[in-house]
Design a protein that fits this description.
Layout: E1 2-7, H1 10-17, H2 19-27, H3 34-41, H4 45-57, E2 61-69, E3 72-79, E4 81-86, H5 107-131, H6 149-170
Parallel strand pairs: 1-4
Antiparallel strand pairs: 2-3
Helix pairs in contact: 3-4
Length: about 200
């Protein structure tokens, strides 16, 4: 089972987003039979089988094991990944594109950048898996709490300067055998924890 699978096919995305099928994918982190899932979810086994066949036809679940019970064969199914992401490519021509945004400080531009990362990396990862190669990537994820908007601006300027200096140092336009890499650095406020009050 993969840690994460990117769904590029619009039909598969539609299938995975159905609430019952999405729940089935979650339940199938471990192999289970239709009968087990029916008991667990309170849905008739015939309906579970229908949903499993649909998920299987889009390669979102697969057979993990087959068991013989008298003259019957029970199939234990498992999800193909622990979690799923729908690629922006599944949206076709209306998929988000950073080139359409003029405001590089806007939230929509940041979302477009993130979507492009998902689309490009998933395509490269798929090709790497087919050839048995590892895709070289770099990810940095951290949190910072600024004392003031002024210090946030100072940090942004310092970061831009440091990145510009590193790019100038290591970028070689004419290096034989060199390969271009995309570097994206983003920052956004963290979501606030919900302030749900306990009932009195």
């Amino acid at each position: 089972m993969l840690d994460v699978e990117v769904i590029n096919d619009p039909a598969a995305a539609t299938v995975a987003l159905d609430p019952v099928r999405s729940r089935l994918l979650s339940e199938l982190a471990q192999p289970a039979s239709a009968a087990t899932l029916a008991d667990r979810m309170g849905i008739p086994r015939q309906k579970i089988n229908y949903h499993l066949r649909t998920l299987e036809s889009h390669r979102l679940v697969q057979v993990a094991e087959k068991r013989k019970w008298g003259g019957l064969t029970e199939r234990l199914m498992v999800a193909t990944a622990a979690s799923y992401v729908v690629s922006p490519g599944a949206m076709g021509p209306v998929a988000t594109d950073p080139g359409r945004s003029a405001d590089r400080l806007s939230a929509s531009y940041l979302i477009s950048l993130a979507a492009r990362v998902v689309h490009e990396v998933s395509d490269l990862w798929s090709k790497a898996k087919k050839t048995g190669k590892r895709l070289p990537t770099l990810s940095i994820d951290t949190e910072i709490r600024f004392r003031s908007p002024e210090e946030r601006a100072e940090f942004s300027n310092a970061l831009a300067g440091a990145v510009g200096s590193l790019v100038a140092r290591y970028h070689d336009e004419s290096a034989p055998g060199g390969r271009r890499h995309r570097l994206v650095i983003v920052a956004h406020p963290l979501p606030q924890p919900s302030q749900t009050k306990e009932p009195s």
